[in-house]
Amino acid sequence: MDIVAKLMKLQDRSFADFQAKLLPTIDRSSIIGVRIPILRDIAKELLMNGEAADLMKTLPHRFLEENLLHGIFISEMKDLDECLAETERFLPFVNNWAVCDTMSPKSFKKNREKLLVKIKSWAKSRDVYTCRFGIKMLMSHFLDGDFREEFLQIPAAVKSDEYYINMMIAWFFATALAKQWDPTVKYLENKRLSPWVHNKTIQKAIESFRITAEQKIYLKGLKLS
After folding, report:
1. Over the stretch 178-190, which tens digit does the pLDDT of each residue have?
2. Taking the model in full, what pTM does it have?
3. Domain spans of the chain, in order of start
4. Nearest to 75 by CA among 45, 97, 44, 96
């Protein structure tokens, strides 16, 4: 199957124009305009007929949709070690938040300690989307039963001027407030985050239905002027 040719047949130019506005870090010419549900159907087909491996061998990709498919393929990998290896190989080529956030490997649930080692490494990366991915994985896998207060220091230690990193840190702490209020709110009370991340965390938490009315009132009082 010529994957790009298939994607071109499914092109929606108006959707591509819409995506371009949301993804300012990539050229409009690299966006075909295929919606995620359609891409997931294509991914299933390619995984079933064995053609997914061919696309994964070819880096870098030209189009956003090829990268999205690549991220979906990685997310479906069952062997943890293979998935981690393919994730590490792919991350340097991720150049936008959509591809970064599409990646959600199912196999990452199998060995938390091995994953945690990788997360700590990714979060320290100078690459914007490798760092963002590491923080996202920490948020996805370590704010519930496996939570330890020390995990909050991983994103708090990240100092960056990059918007897409700082937005992820704020998303992380807003989620942490909803799931682990007591240790997380201390980071705001003690002003341990940058002013922008601090206020964005509060904004996102206040917008969340998982934060109580009383907690929202308290958070408003912590906002920096």
Report:
1. 999 999 999 999 9
2. 0.95
3. 1-110, 112-225
4. 44
